[in-house]
Design a protein that fits this description.
The structure is a single chain. The protein is mainly alpha-helical. Helices cover about 80% and strands about 0% of the residues. Helix 2 runs antiparallel to helix 3. The protein is elongated and about 70 Å long. The relative contact order is 0.15. The model has no long low-confidence stretch (mean pLDDT about 90).
Length: about 110
């Protein structure tokens, strides 16, 4: 007996989740680009870290979000249990780390001026 197709509401919810991941990814890329062009942070290596880290995290978020969407879509199509969401924990921890680094860089900038 064939597995019935997934309810369109669940497929659309999965798609909205993917779009949320893409918004996060785009915001991270925009933040890194802005930090790289507008913010004046010394030393140069710290400026590069504050600019590049969010861009790389944005890339990771886009790829992880797509992979998550695909696994959930496959699970719904086959009737399997939905996979656990491990990606969100990793992205949240990375964003927290970037916030700490950016905060320290800002504090260093304030102290040096």
């Amino acid at each position: 007996m064939a597995t019935p197709p997934p309810d369109p509401r669940f497929r659309l919810a999965n798609e909205r989740t993917l779009l949320s991941w893409m918004r996060v990814a785009l915001a991270l890329v925009a933040a890194g680009t802005t930090a790289g062009t507008v913010v004046d942070i010394t030393p140069v290596w710290l400026h590069a870290l504050v600019a590049i880290a969010p861009i790389l995290l944005g890339l990771a978020a886009a790829l992880l979000g797509f992979a998550r969407w695909q696994r959930v879509e496959d699970a719904m199509r086959t009737g399997a249990e939905l996979p656990p969401d491990r990606e969100l924990r990793h992205v949240a921890m990375a964003v927290a780390l970037i916030a700490v680094v950016a905060g320290c860089a800002s504090l260093i900038g304030v102290i040096n001026h």
